[in-house]
Structure formats: structure tokens, C-alpha cells
Design a protein that fits this description.
alpha/beta, D-Maltodextrin-Binding Protein, domain 2, 2 domains, five-stranded mixed β-sheet, 16 helices, 10 strands, SsuA/THI5, signal, ABC transporter substrate-binding protein
């Protein structure tokens, strides 16, 4: 009996080792990633890092040997629709604006923030041709359209705050991008706070761009993040590191100054926006900084401030500890792995 017990104990230990090794190698069958679809054509376009990762198949190359399928889920409904997809476990990761990510987390979405994907993107103030609006101070008493609850709403509030203004000083109406564009052209509103689509109206003489957040020293600039479902991250931590390692490769390509012009040409093809518009929007950006994935102090400070503003606007009921949301260790491991690979001798 004693020998039998010893044999059973040994068998259990062996099984534990085998099962443990198997568990360590457990991989998902697919990785599903939600991104906003901002294209004006039948082609899909999200902008920046996402387009490079898709075009160069960075994730597909990283996980091909494991048979893991990469599914890009393009979402027209932007932040709220992406949050719904995360809540319903229809996607595992998302690249999108900081405000919807904050709102999702505050409303109970069990996500973890694993990377930045874009920082200090311009927000635009588009105005009617004869509005006489040249600055934020000129907006007092004017009718302005912005899509409430979006990153641009948060952007507007931060820009107004810096000028000693508030929403009460304006007549603000909530409209999505299509509705606000039409309203501005028709003269139903005096101004619109939004994205680079306002440059199209400016170029066609249908409206004017009075200023951007770059004119305000980036106060009110928009930011984008990468989040993942905590359940997926906890189950497949090595996959997260590899995902960010592949992201880093795409970033390094985009950060190379020699690739800026080729990227803008491709972005025009993907988005349907004229090359001149994208040059006007992105030509003065330092891509190495603009698309940096770093979760550094300035970026985290911005997120902390955004959480506070979102609570003040009652977009979220209560704030939450940023430290409980951000998981910088995955990015650190991915960067270390990338640097190790770069230093490794090439195979003969």
C-alpha cells in the first residue's frame, strides 16, 4: 500500500508538471481587435498605428506559427459601440479614444490599459464663413455643435477651461460628425468642434477652420489608447507581450522620418481624404512622439486629468484609481524583448 501511495503521488506530480506546461502554452484560437472606422470610402481606415499594423500584417506575422487568427473589427459607432463589443466579449482588445475608454472602465467594463497609440492629435474649430469667430473667446453666446460623450467633447471642455470659459458661455448642441458637418454648411450652427474632416469644408470654401488645439499649445488635444479585456489578459499574458512587441515594430517603422511621406500617400488611398488635407493635418507632427506607445508620466497625467473632467461633466459617476487600470509591465516586457531581438546576431 505504501508503494502504491508513493506511485500515485509520483504520478500526480508528473501530471502536474505536464498539465502545468500545457497550461503555460495555452493560446487563443483568435485575437479580435476593435477599431474605429473613419473612412470616407468603401475601404476601411482608422488612422495611424492601426493602418500600419493592418497593412504590414504585423500581428498576423507574429502569431502565424501558432495558427492564431487576427480579426480586425471596424466599428462605425466609435467609442460607445466599441465599449458594447467589449462588454459582450465580442472583441478582446480595442484601439480608441481615451474618453470612451475611461467611460467604459468607470461603468464597469473590466478592461486594462496596456499601451498608448496616439497622443496630442489636433481637434479643430470649424466656423461659418461670416461668423467672425477667430478664437475661443469669440464663441461666447454662439451656437456650437460637438458630439457629447466623445473624446472631442472632453477636448472642448479642457480647451474652454484653459481660457476661463465653460459650456454655459456657449449654446452647445450635441450632433454626430455627419449631422454637425451638414449643420455648419447650412448655417444652422455657428461653429463645430471636431476632427480633421472640417479641413475638407475649409478647402472647399464651405466653412473655415478658425484654430486647432496646436494653436492652444495642445490643450484639448485628443489621445488614443489600447485596452484589453482583463479576462483575456490574465489568461494569455504572453500573448499580450507578443502583441505589444509586434505593435512596437509597426511603431518603429512609422516613427522613421523616411516613412512619413509614403505613409501619407497610403493614408490618402485608404481614407479617401485628399493628400493635401492629410499633409495639413499631419505634416507638422513628429510621428516618433505622436504615435509613441509609451505610458510615460505626461501621458498618464493627461489620463488622470481626463478622468477628473469626465467626472465633473457627469459622464462618469465616480473616478477610479488610474493605477488599477494601467498595466505598464506588458509594454516593458515587449520593449525588452524587442531590444534583445535587435541585439541578437543574425542567422548565417
Amino acid at each position: 500500500m505504501k508503494r502504491l501511495n508513493q506511485w500515485l503521488i509520483g504520478l500526480a506530480a508528473l501530471c502536474g508538471l505536464v498539465c502545468g506546461a500545457h497550461a503555460a502554452q495555452e493560446l487563443p484560437s483568435a485575437i479580435r481587435i476593435a477599431v474605429p472606422d473613419t473612412s470616407t470610402t468603401a475601404k476601411r481606415y482608422s488612422g495611424g498605428m492601426v493602418d500600419i499594423l493592418v497593412d504590414q500584417k504585423r500581428f498576423e506575422q507574429e502569431f502565424a506559427k501558432d495558427g492564431i487568427k487576427i480579426e480586425w473589427v471596424y466599428v462605425r459607432g466609435a467609442g460607445p459601440a466599441i465599449n458594447e463589443a467589449l462588454a459582450n466579449q465580442q472583441v478582446d482588445f480595442a484601439y480608441y479614444g481615451d474618453l470612451p475608454a475611461i467611460v467604459g472602465r468607470a461603468n464597469g467594463l473590466d478592461t486594462q490599459l496596456i499601451s498608448a497609440s496616439r497622443r496630442n492629435s489636433k481637434a479643430y474649430l470649424g466656423v461659418t464663413a461670416n461668423s467672425g469667430i477667430h478664437s475661443l473667446a469669440d464663441l461666447k453666446g454662439k451656437k456650437l455643435a460637438v458630439f457629447r460623450g466623445t473624446t472631442y467633447h472632453l477636448s472642448l471642455i479642457r480647451a474652454l477651461d484653459a481660457q476661463g470659459l465653460s459650456e454655459r458661455d456657449l449654446k452647445i448642441t450635441s450632433m454626430d460628425t455627419s449631422a454637425s458637418t451638414a449643420a455648419l454648411v447650412a448655417g444652422l450652427v455657428d461653429a463645430v468642434w471636431g476632427a480633421n474632416n472640417l479641413l475638407t469644408l475649409d478647402q472647399r470654401g464651405l466653412a473655415k477652420v478658425a484654430l486647432t488645439t496646436h494653436d492652444l499649445n495642445n490643450v484639448g488635444a485628443t489621445h488614443e489608447v489600447v485596452v484589453g479585456r482583463k479576462a483575456f489578459i490574465d489568461r494569455y499574458p504572453e500573448v499580450v507581450v507578443r502583441l505589444l512587441k509586434a505593435h512596437q515594430k509597426g511603431y518603429e517603422w512609422l516613427a522613421d522620418v523616411h516613412n512619413k511621406a509614403p505613409y501619407l500617400v497610403k493614408a490618402s488611398e485608404w481614407s479617401g481624404y485628399p493628400p493635401a488635407l492629410l499633409e495639413r493635418d499631419l505634416g507638422d507632427e513628429d510621428f516618433a512622439d505622436h504615435y509613441s506607445p509609451r505610458l510615460d508620466a505626461p501621458f498618464l497625467d493627461t489620463l488622470q486629468a481626463d478622468i477628473a473632467v469626465a467626472q465633473r461633466l457627469r459622464l462618469i459617476r465616480q473616478a477610479f484609481p488610474l493605477a488599477d487600470w494601467v498595466r505598464p509591465e506588458f509594454q516593458a516586457q515587449a520593449l525588452a524583448a524587442s531590444q534583445t531581438a535587435a541585439l541578437a546576431p543574425s542567422q548565417p
